[in-house]
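Q: Structure tokens for this one, please.
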Amino acid sequence: MELLKDYRTLPELNKIEGVKSLPSVSKIFQTVDKQSIQFVKMLKDKNSAQGKIVREAVKTGTQAHKVLETKKVVKTEDPAKNLLLEAVLEEYHNSFDPIIEETFAKEKGVYYPAQYKGKFDSTGVINGKTTLWDYKKTNAPKRKSNMQTYFKQICAYAMAHNLIYENQIEQVGVLNIFGKTAEQVSSQVILLSMEELAHYTALFNEDLTKYNKLTQEAAWAQ
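A: Here is the predicted structure, written as tokens:
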């Protein structure tokens, strides 16, 4: 297999490699990961007060993520939300810009042949190391113990990235901006050690094995 020199979007990877039928990393989690399954159930429950809160948080997170991608704030009809998004952008410039030494690619695709596909937020250089990272927006700061799904996701992306791209990832991380209001906005940079990267990669591979088993059993049952 010849390594790709240029980064590709998922549609481009589908065109040249035929990855459309592969499950996304998110789909794998939503099939086998208890935390992800419960989250999706809450998100879909239109009669649940908790579900409404979750949907609003997801909407705000999506808007904040767009701000981080474009470095622009698109005004909404909610003045408080506009202030929050502006604070998110300011926090990005104050806390993330100084540590991101170089950016190679944004919003590009990865795939692991015959297994899964995904889309990472960025690759580049942080603290002198070639890094793959994802941005997150949460209501409160996160402990590592509560970020297992995030870590498994970026480790899956890194594993696939290193298989198909010439540029090799040395570390992975989550750049998280948190706070419910503009006044509360702050951030945390969580970079995984090599031992942690190996640990969460192994956990993802367990999820992938479970997913493949369930998919195979479902096919046999038809």
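A few notes: The chain has a mean pLDDT of 91. The chain has seven helices and five strands.
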